[in-house]
Amino acid sequence: MVLITGAGGQVGTTLLQALSAEGIRTRAWIHRAEQKETVITAGASEVFVGDLTLTENAVQAMSGVDTVYFICNAANPQEDTIGSNLIETAKKLGDITFIYHSVLHSLLSDMPHHDRKRKVEKTLVDSGIPYVILQPAVFMQMLAPSIQSIKKGGVFVQKFYTSSQTKMSFVDIKDYAEAAAKIVASGAFTYGTYELCSNGTYSLTDMENILSELMERKVTSAYIPDEDFLATSHLPADSYAGRTLLTMFRHYNENSFCGSSYTLTKILGRNPVTIRDYFVKVLSE
Question: What is the C-alpha R_g of the chain?
């Protein structure tokens, strides 16, 4: 059985669906009881409600599982501490493989959430327990609100690009989950770290050209100012999450954020969903 933390979020529910499709039993660890119906609908075999920061909850949640899949909510200032505690608990219980949902290029320590994920990766590798580290690129689903703007006749509202030189890699969350499920089912990926990216690296011009072709009109873009992003995200300007996400966007804008599709293609046994594929799907919905 696979224990999935953060199971009520978008990544967690998509992963539950993919694991269920592979016939793998799962225990969904959620923080709030009201998420129970969501994870059961997504395919969870069992549900555990508890606090990720409490060791006693971790011991209870890990009872009887052979795999822990650690997903932490975005920009959590305690991710490295939580990860360390979960890894230590898994090590003490024994016979548990630990899979970590990290991020592409976790070594980029100037982004706080990358640095916390880097620390979890190090703790995991140093622990000596069986592990798999997955490093996805930016999920295409982050662009969904922008596509809705275009469908309504508006512009491509975005925060990834301020320079014509910036290039980005993306990955479809469903491709990520399918690859993760195959990794769990196989058992052949232990002690490995895997970048999961779709094909291609895209500039803002590339995005606009693809969207213009699909919409059969000229699609232009607009950059979201920091204050508007924070307001829409309901994040105070002085919050850890707000500062962390703005730092992330600045890094992407200034340095690009690119990865290879080789590993994901091999795991899936097919070409990953491309940005164009994703745009076609969302625009047709």
Answer: 19
